[in-house]
Amino acid sequence: MMIKSSSIAKILRYCSVFRSIQRFESSTTTSFPPESPASPITQQLPLIVSRQIEYPHIRYPPLQAWLETLGQKRDEKLGLVDLHPSIWQTSPRLDILYENIEWQKTYKKIDWAYTPPHHEYPNMRTKPWPQKGTGRARHKSRFGPQWKGGYKVNGPKGPTSFFYVLPKEKRIEGLCTALTVKLHQNDVHIVDSLDLPTHQPTYLQELAEDRFWGPSILFVDDTDIMPHNIMFATAKTEGFTLMPVYGLNVHSMIKHTTLVLTIRALNKIEKKLLHALHSYDTQKDQPAAPDEP
Amino acid sequence: MSLVLRNILRRCPSAIITQSSLRFWSSNGQFPSHPMDTEEYENQPRKSITELPDELTERGTQPKFISGYETTKDEWEWVDNVLFKSAIPEPPDHPTPSGWFPPNPTLARQWPYFVDRDRFHSYALYVRILPVMLEYWLHEQHRYYLNIFRRRVEYDIYAQRTRRFSLLELISGDIWALDNDLKHYLTKRIELSHDKSKELPVLSQVDEIKRHILVDGEYEEWIADFLKEKGF
Fold first, then answer.
1. A280–B209 CB contact, under 8 Å
2. CB of A17 less than 8 A from some CB of B
3. Is A279 within 8 Å of chain B by CB?
4. Same domain, A257 and A272
5. Residue in chain B lying closest to A86 (CA)
6. Please, which pLDDT band fits residue A126 given cuts at 50, 70 and 90?
7. Looking at the domain assignment, is residue A198 inside a domain?
């Protein structure tokens, strides 16, 4: 991928250290970041992570975002990352976003309300008082629907589930919309990895405060096995959440103020979403995704 | 069994029945009384009408004649051709004999709007017959409705069939500019064609949230020509 002149100017302006430009091809087979995560940055800067963009868009070129780091408190940008416009530059479908959030809320819902019908009530066949003579209304039993404590005819019966599965296209469009919205509201930060120098939660909290990263942060990595330091720090901090890629959902993205992705997570998300957007799976033939363990 | 006897049996306890000579028409007193839920009944080999009778089937017997065969894994491509593939192939860069045209990016970039293609590389252009709410007011009674697939659908008495709409989706950019250009193009086309069933003005509905344009009338081919001219 060719480097544009505008991006070179940006790099010179913001990077404090200018070394020789190093091209870094990222693919699924190579491991990223390479080595020495805990120590301060020793790689040559700036890193322009030229990712292979699959299914290039006809009209819109790839977007660009800063590559940041959690390894040091000082906000140094390591380089630029390309983002696919089909995912990160959609026309945001707010109605589909709403449907996704509603689905996430209601598909787990079970209504336990139960009113027993008349045959589950005690068999009081006795008339409370005779039909005629007393000045009161005529009744057959003490448990009629008009009585207090009586049965209900068409009341809720048993646990009712509100389970349904939203169509695949709507779920995909919801994720793309949420990502687009987050990016264009400056709430997405792409990070080389989730490796921290210390396990102290104050380090991460102060880092987030300095960079104005919002009260709640969602850290997304590609696997569910996370480094120990970030695990400890997020466990002790309210509002910081760790999540693997397979747990990414619209409600969490909207609930948390900022979204912090690693490069590996970004690769995996883009691959999965693009594969789903550009293939045709009938309900019967849905093969396993190529990358899953 | 007569009704009288049946009523007697209903009221007699089963012990009396087993002891007396009425036993032959009650159950044999063993559990389960009906073969429905027993294992042998459930697991018996089921037979359908289309299956051959037992004498003609060859269950467990060797076939009389086996032709020579050979198992290979060569020429897998002939099998692969037939299998269902979820990956959609890339189309060619030139127009095809079926009338499909590839998009023209240089031409498409100059407009303030962009109409994307769907995953099968075709226009997102559809015909719709939309349902209509039932109106009870007297001044609406001149409208005509049909019930199709349990939906109330508007009927066009001039075209003498249901009212059709053309839907254009996957729009990004300035939708109103596209709407304007589309309406100009369609009015010009209608004037040139001198078709009495197509009436002016061309009515359209723009949905900014769902990013689509709904045009009243069946103008699918003309909208496709419009998109081809723009290079989408």
1. no
2. no
3. yes
4. yes
5. B116
6. confident
7. yes
Same domain, A194 and A245: yes
- Inspect the interface and report whether the beta carbons of A278 and B119 lie closer than 8 Å: yes
Please check whether residues A136 and A243 belong to one and the same domain.
Answer: no
pLDDT in tens, A48-72: 777 889 999 999 999 999 999 999 9
In a domain, B80, yes or no: no
Asked, for residue A1, whether it belongs to a domain, the answer is no
Give the structural domain span for A266.
59-95+166-277
**Are A91 and B103 a contacting pair at CB < 8 A?**
no
Q: Is A225 on the interface with B (CB under 8 A)?
A: no
Q: Which of B164, B200, B153 is nearest to B144 (CA)?
A: B153
User: Could you tell me if residue A22 is inside a domain?
Assistant: no
Q: Are A78 and A199 in the same domain?
A: yes
**φ, ψ for residue A51, nearest 5 deg:** -90, 150
Same domain, residue pair A123 and A219? no
Residue A277, chain B, CB below 8 Å: the answer is yes
- pTM of the model as a whole: 0.72
What's the domain count of chain A? 2
Nearest CA in chain A to B115: A59
Residue recorded with tokens 């127009």? B95
CATH code of the domain containing B217: 3.30.780.10
Q: Does A154 touch chain B (CB under 8 A)?
A: no
**A207-233 per-position pLDDT tens digit:** 999 999 989 999 999 999 999 999 999
Nearest to B148 by CA among B168, B126, B131: B131
Q: Decide if pLDDT at A292 tops 50.
A: no
Looking at the fold, whether A174 and A89 belong to one and the same domain comes out as yes
Give per-residue pLDDT as tens, A200-209.
Answer: 999 999 999 9
In a domain, A21, yes or no: no
Neighbours of B63 (CB within 10 A): 7
What is the least distance, in Å, from the CA of A166 to any CA of chain B? 17
3-class DSSP string for chain B: CCHHHHHHHHHCCHHHHHHCHHHHHCCCCCCCCCHHHCHHHHHCCCCCCCCCCCCCCCCCCCCCCCCCCCCCCCCHHHHHHHCCCCECCCCCCCCCCCCCCCCCHHHHCCCCEEECECCCCCECEEEECCECCCCCCHHHCCCCEEEECCEEEEEECCCCEECCEEEECCEEECHHHHHHHHHHHHHHHHHHHCCCCCCCCCCEEEECCCCEEEEECCCHHHHHHHHHHHCC
CB contact (8 A) between residue A59 and residue B109: yes
**Which ipTM value was assigned to this complex?**
0.73
State which residues form the domain around B210. Answer: 106-140+149-230
pLDDT value of position B10: 59
Mean pLDDT of B163-179: 94
Q: Which residues of chain B are within 8 Å of residue A56 when distances are taken between CB atoms?
A: none
CB nearest to A91's CB, from B105, B109, B172: B172
Pair (A173, A75) in one structural domain = yes
